[in-house]
Amino acid sequence: MSKRRSVWGIEGDVLDMINEASRQSFPNEFVAALRAEEGIITEILLFPGSISNERSASMQLHMLPIDFSVVGTVHSHPGPSNQPSDEDLHLFSNFGNTHIITCLPYDRRSWQSYDREGARITLEIV
Ligand SMILES: [Zn+2]
Predict the structure, then answer these.
(1) Cα 21 from Cα 13, distance rounded (Å)
(2) Cα(68) to centroid of ligand 1, in Å?
(3) pLDDT (tens digit, 9 = 90+) per residue, 31-53?
(4) What are the DSSP calls for 16-56, one per residue?
(5) What are the tens digits of pLDDT across the range 60-118?
(6) Cystine design at 88: which of 57, 66, 84, 113 (Cβ 3.0–4.6 Å)?
(7) pLDDT for the residue numbered 105
(8) C-alpha span between 69 and 93 (Å, rounded)
(9) Inter-residue contact 17 to 44 (CB < 8 Å)
């Protein structure tokens, strides 16, 4: 852990918004893109409609316009695990370098962030 990642933090409000949206989408998955400014995730970019499974989530992400402030993705799991599935790992490797998965009960301890290889990373809540 010598050099700081280009994306190293997330605003607490954004995290709360993600968890609230995940609760509202349950039992479907909530999916969004992450936008960062100066290394901190400050915004989520929503997709129209609801997502019912991981495959359709990946497809929607691939249809996003190219936007260089988008650094990765966030999605919810309708269960108690925030471990990436095979489908998630495929998505991570194709889309950005910072990914968040949140799971039940969708609070500030139920999320985990990953890099494009699916390795756990730490984001500071700011
Ligand atoms: Zn997933």
Answers:
(1) 12
(2) 23
(3) 898 999 999 999 998 765 555 56
(4) HHHHHHHHHHTTSBPEEEEEEETTEEEEEEE-SS-B-SHHH
(5) 666 666 667 889 999 999 999 999 999 999 989 988 899 999 999 999 999 999 999 99
(6) 84
(7) 97
(8) 17
(9) yes
**CA 61 to ligand 1 center in whole angstroms:** 13
Question: Which tokens belong to 8?
Answer: 């190293």
Give the span between the Cα atoms of 124 and 75, in whole angstroms.
Answer: 18
Domains with residue ranges and CATH for the chain = 9-125 (3.40.140.10)
Q: Helix 86-94 crosses helix 54-62 at what angle (to 10 degrees)?
A: 10
Cα(26) to centroid(ligand 1), Å: 13
Instruction: Give me ligand 1 centre to Cα 70, in Å.
Output: 19
pTM reported for the whole predicted model: 0.87
Alpha carbons 27 and 78: distance in angstroms, whole number: 5
For this structure, is 117 an active site residue?
no
Contact 75, 82 (CB under 8 A): no
Tell me which of 29, 37, 87, 124 is the catalytic residue.
Answer: 29
